Each structure stands twice: as C-alpha cells, then as structure tokens.
Amino acid sequence: MTPDGTGGPDGTGGSSDSSGNLDRFYDRLTSLAYGGDYNPEQWGPDVHAEDVELMRAAGVNLVTLGIFGWATTEPTPGAYDFTWLDAHLDRLAAAGVAACLATMTASPPPWLARLHPETLPVLADGTRLHPGSRQHWCPSSPVFRSHAVRLTERLATRYADHPALALWHIGNEYGCHISRHCHCEVSTAAFRTWLRERYQTLDALNDAWSTTFWSQRYSTWEEIHTPRAAPSFRNPAQQADFLRFSSDELLACYLAEKAVLARVTPHTPVTTNFVPVAKTLDLFRWAPHLDVVSYDSYPDPHDPDAAQRTAFSYDVMRGLKAGPWLLLEQAPSAVNWRAHNGRKPPGRMRLDSWQAVAHGADAVLFFQWRQSRGGAEKFHSAMVPHAGPETRTFREVTELGAELAAHADLLRSRPERADAALLLDWPNWWALETDAHPSEVDYLEGALAHHKALYDASVACDVVPVDGDLAAYRLLLVPHLYSLSLDTAARLTDYVRGGGTLVVSYFSGITDEHDRVHLGGYPGPLREVLGLTVEEFDPRPDGAWAEEIRLEGAEQVLAYDEGGPAVTRHEYGRGTAWYLGLRPDPKTMRELLDRVRAEAGVSPVEAGLPEGVQVRTRVTAAGERVRLRLDHRDGSVTAERDQASRQ
Ligand code: GLA
Known about the structure:
Elements: H1 23-27, E1 33-38, H2 45-58, E2 62-65, H3 70-73, H4 83-94, E3 98-102, H5 110-115, H6 142-159, E4 165-169, H7 185-199, H8 202-208, H9 236-264, E5 270-271, E6 273-274, H10 283-286, E7 293-297, H11 306-320, E8 325-330, H12 348-358, E9 361-366, H13 392-406, E10 414-415, E11 420-423, H14 426-432, H15 443-455, E12 461-464, E13 475-478, H16 486-497, E14 501-505, H17 527-530, E15 532-537, E16 547-551, E17 555-559, E18 565-572, E19 575-580, H18 586-600, E20 613-619, E21 625-631, E22 637-642
Parallel strand pairs: 1-2, 1-9, 2-3, 3-4, 4-5, 6-7, 7-8, 8-9, 11-12, 11-13, 13-14, 14-19
Antiparallel strand pairs: 10-20, 15-16, 17-18, 18-19, 20-21, 21-22
Helix pairs in contact: 6-9, 11-15, 15-18
C-alpha cells in the first residue's frame, strides 16, 4: 500500500526522498538543540508560566510539542481546538524556544475506536487490542490514515509560518508497541496487495515461498494470510515477507503525513524518532524519507555494557543518512518501564548526552520536560522532577544546558570519518531469526559483539547497508549475513578483490532473499572469497556455535577445542577475507580483531587509551578539531580543541 500521491510500487514512496534541507531548523538555533518533550496540556497556567522561566534557566532552545495532543486538539470528530496550542507556541516563540511540532498521530482519541473499531490492531492469535494505552491503530487502516492525514493538514496549514516552528515530528516511535504487527482483515488484504506487487504471479510467490513443502501451495491469492498463530513452524519466507510488509506499511503511514507537510510547509524539515535499534523497521529503507534522523536512547544505568551498546546505536543512527542526527529522547534519570528502574547516578546524564554529541548528534533532548502527575509514566524521570527545580536532576540539566551552549560551534560540526564499518541488514535480521534453525542466532547480539571489539580498542566504526559505499572502508565486519543475494555476495567479493579486509562470521551466505538455501556447500556464494566450505553445523548444548569447515585455500588461524578450523584467513585478490566459525569469547574476539585491523591498517582514534575511555572527534565549520573525551569509569567529559588545525 502506498499513501496518496507519494508512493512508488515498492511501498516506500520512492519519489519522496528528503534532501535533508535543515535550514529552517538551524536558523532557529545558535548552539546544539537542547530540551525535551513538552506536554503542557497536562498542566495549568501557573505551571506554564514557570515552564518558560525554567526553560530559560536551563538553556532550553527546542521542545517537541503535541506528541500526545490529538484528543485535546480534536476532542470530538472534526471539531478542532487549536487555542491551547496557539498559546503555547506563541509563548515559546516569545521566549526564544523553537518547536519540533508533532503531527499528534501517535495515539488516536478514544472516539476513533468507538466509531471505527476496525482501526484497532489484531495480534497473530486473533486478539484485538483496545484503546486505553497508546499506538492502538492498525498500520493498514485507511480510516486511521485518513483521520491522521486530516489532522496533519490542519496543523500544517495553521502553523506553517509560526515563528516557533523549526521541525515536524511525525507520529512517535513507529512500531514500538505494535511491533508484533497487525493481522486483521484489512491488514490481510493489504498484505495480499503488497505480495501481488512484489511477486506479480501466484506461481512466483509459490516458488519464492517454497510452498511445495508441507503442502502449502496456494491456488488463489485469497488463501494467503498474514502469518497467524499456527500448529507448528510457520513458513519462514512468509514470515520474513510479513516483516518487510509491516515495516513498509508503517512507512506508508509516515509518508502519508509527510506528503501533506511537504506540500503545505515545504521548507520545514521533518523527522520521526526511531526506537532503540530493533528488528521492527528497516531503517535503511526509512531514512531517505527523513530530513534528519532522530533517535530515542534509553540505556539501562545498571548495564555494564551500556556505553558500548549505546555507542553502537549511535553509530547506526549516524550511518542511516549523511548529515547530523538528533537525540530526540533520553531519560534525565530513571525510566519507569523496566522491572527495576535505577536512577542515573550524578554525572551520568551528562556523560550520555556528550556521548551522543561525540557520535554526531546535533540535539540533546529528553523525555520529558516536566514529570507527569498522573498517567502511566508518572514515575519516569523528567528535566523538572516532581520535587521541582531545587533538585540534583534540574541542577544537572541546567549545567548541561550552559555547557552545550558554551560549545556553540559544535552545531553543524561533523564527526571524523571511520576506517572500519559494520554491515547491518534488516531483511537479513528478519530471515535469520525465524524458527527451526540449527541454533538460535541473535543478530543484534552478534553485531554488538563485533562492534565491541572495535569500541574497546577505541576504533571508530560506521554502520553501512548492503548497498553502501564499502570501498570507503579498510575493514568491513559482516556478522551473520544469513540471507545473502548474489548481488551482495559479488559486492563483498569485489570489496576484497580490490584490497579490503572482510570479516564474515558464521551462519552467513546460507540462503537467497527468499530463504532458499544456496546449494553446493555453505556459505554459498562466499565460499570462493573465504576459501572454504562449511559442510555441517554443530551447535553445542550450551548454544555455542560450531561447524565443520573444509579449507579450500584459507589458512587456519584458530581451531575448535576438539580440532578442526574455527577461524580462518584467506588472501584473495588484493585483500583478505576472514571467517569466524564460532563466536569467540570477548577477549579472544578483541585479540583477533586487533590483529585483523592491524593488518588492515585501521588505527584507534587515539593510541593508548585506557579501557573505559572513549575519544571521538568532531570538526567544526571553521575546521577546528574538537576532541571529546568520555571517561565511562568516572563519568568525566572533556572537550579539547586542536589548536594546530585552527584556521
Ligand atoms: C518513548 C516514548 C515516550 C516515552 C518514553 C519513556 O521514548 O516516545 O513517549 O514513553 O519512551 O521512556
């Protein structure tokens, strides 16, 4: 399904790529964007007056406004009340605070479900979800979409020229709560339409889905359903297609609203905030349609690996699109949605914020400005806590605001480029994590384990898609690329032939894009470049991966405990291809990748950094290098300027 007027046949609205024109956004800022979700509809006039004073004290220059404002703005169908929003936008403009204005479509008012219960999403087991929470809408529902578009049009028309408006915020965290996707009749029909566009003929679909297996051959399109609850393993190609369809359907919702904004306010950039790197959305398919990528980061303060996991997410965001990205949400202290919600210790919020800047963010925003008095998130921290401004949190918020403002030239500065990259691919994620495989392989954990070996060595790492500019990197890490097209295999082979260093880890090159095995031995079209064949998988009862590798030109670097090659190295063309037939423990992984990158000529950002200290450099418009040093051991952050390169 494609939204009105924007769609290409692939459901991504091919003609609506965003140029990334951020002038209107930058025109309203004199330093990095700083602020948070502002939900003034939860409060009265006395609080509103104080909000502006406190924002000024905290150095806030941007707030996201109206994300959950639909029911306030359209309390009954078609009866709009913008007076509340007029007042807030005017007040913000007068105070010099810019607005990232939401289209308000994340949470429809209860009347939509009352009048149109078919807009509610349905789980694989047939359970229909109900209002009373948020994001209770079916991504394929034309009724939901038309109401969302109608509201967007009213907002865009009303506020196109408002002086506070800097950026549009479409929806909110697409796919966060309905990540299990919708299986209602409307979605089923939309899935069939999507499949017809993809395969054209039923024969092609039957072939792609291997439906001769288990007597699944379809004789009409009407027999095809979304992968609903079933007695045993569901068709893996069908599951992967459903995930692709679901990502596209949510994108079509986004694009339907974006088309309105592009028509009515063509010079105001648009964004939407992505959730922590997850399987739900193919972000490489989404990113071209955002003027700027935005990300919500919620590391667990109790997680010892939080800094590296966060660095990985930030690297993904930076890799989605050229230009900056925005940290649109993070918690000032505790969240409320884990089993145990530890606070961020003193200094941690500052450290997390600077880490985002170090990885390329041009905004540091929080959820949310003022801690709610009621509702499901009243125990989630905020910039202004329940206890008010005389608190540690607000003091730290204020200090950070002043500090960011003091580094005004970081706005529009860019991180220095990396020599190493990690390849990430959502369709692969969807195919890799289906049922009935030799053992479970967690794609995200695999990617994180590879990234960690670089992160711990202070090596900067970009994240690239399968069709990215591979030749720009000396070293390319390819974790678990189970689903591999012949095109991508040829690109990886060419990369090595041309002098690149490739590291491929196990359960790669197994199937084509329809989950059909590449015959002749694993890893199919990568056998030649890797110089080996995998004959059999042999995962261990503890989940550790192992396999039987036959060397065909590669040399053994490490063996399994019981013998046989486990890690190999193959010189091919002008480059080198490594293969990991197991997941080494973190120490071995680090030693291995230290050797690999030394051979590839990939250096740390800075030599001799102690473990736990991260350095990243941004280059200002004036050509000055700002070296951000983040000490994750004691929480300290320093910004040093490279006098030598000052222009
Ligand atoms: C997400 C949402 C916010 C809020 C926060 C709480 O990021 O976008 O509305 O619920 O989580 O952590």
